[in-house]
Amino acid sequence: MIVGIIPARFASTRLMGKPLADIGGKPMIQHTWENARKSKLLEKVVIAVDDEKVFEVVKDFGAEVYMTPKNIASGSDRIALVAKELPEADIVVNIQGDEPFINGKMIDEAIEPLLFDKKVNVSTLVKRITSVDELKSPSVVKVVFDYNNYALYFSRSPIPYVRDAKTNLERIETGEIYKHIGLYVFRKETLMKFTSLKPTDLEKIEKLEQLRMLEHGIKIKIVVTEYDTLSVDTPKDLDIARKFYEKYLKSNNKR
To answer: Is residue 110 part of a domain?
Structure first.
């Protein structure tokens, strides 16, 4: 069974109570859950929470929900804990709870490599960077990958460095620089192995847990997507998300 698990942590440092943030009359976590369920390949979508208020809200809108401890280090650790409670799960999809407009087709794109190739144990999504702001932002993670579409490295710095380009715009246009979209698909045994490993040196330096996989030789299949997401990490992001949703509703009402 292919199961999507949405980790939702209440005590975000930059946006407290983030899962319950209101976007157009619904909590953000509900938007994420509803959009994840549009995936054609996911057979079940559950939510992993760490707060009683979030637990009750999630139950009220009808999702399957699991309570997990507050002191879990990462979203991957949180979904691993829930995956242990789901013996029927063969493939586990980590869907970020702060991406309320995740497209179901993106999820399917990320799942497909594990269905077609038994050698693929982990996959994730990337999209080509088209703006200088994304190139320069350390919160937008960049990735380089080999000719077989396996990740070589992830970084908060612009990689690859296009030495001959004279401007950042030229770097984007000539360098084919990709950003990482933080949706992961794991074979269950690989998820358990990954989360049992201790944080590694590069992971600690860059603050990117996917580097733990690479440092331990776990290969990550890269899927290039044309779809994009809108992550909500700050009050400013939340304001953007609310305006985006309002615009989306207006355009749908005109049809």
So the answer is: yes
**What is this structure's pTM?**
0.93
Q: Tens-digit pLDDT profile for the chain (255 aa)?
A: 999 999 999 987 778 899 999 999 999 999 999 999 999 999 999 999 999 999 999 999 999 999 999 888 888 999 999 999 999 999 999 999 999 999 999 999 999 999 999 999 999 999 999 999 999 999 899 999 999 999 999 999 999 999 999 999 999 999 999 999 999 999 999 999 999 999 999 999 999 999 999 999 999 999 999 999 988 989 999 999 999 998 877 666 654
Query: In terms of residue numbers, what domain contains 82?
Result: 2-127+178-253
* Token pair belonging to 70: 């507050």
Return contacts of 234-243, CB within 8 angstroms, 24+ apart: 234/14, 234/15, 235/14, 235/15, 237/15, 238/15, 238/21, 238/23, 238/28, 241/23, 241/28, 241/100, 241/101, 242/22, 242/23, 242/24
Task: Supply φ then ψ for residue 179, to 5 degrees.
Answer: -100, 150
Determine the 3-state secondary structure of 181 from DSSP.
strand
Q: H helices of 61-100, where? A: 75-83
User: Which residue carries 């999702």 as its tokens?
Assistant: 63
Rounded distance, CA 99 to CA 80, Å?
Answer: 20
DSSP count for the chain of H helices, then E strands: 10, 11
DSSP H or E stretch at residue 179: strand 178-187
What are the percentages of helix, strand and coil residues in the chain, rounded to 5? 40, 20, 40
Q: Pairing mode, if any, of strands 26-27 and 44-49?
A: unpaired
Residues in a beta bridge with 124 = 184, 222
Q: Which CATH number goes with the domain that contains 189? A: 3.90.550.10
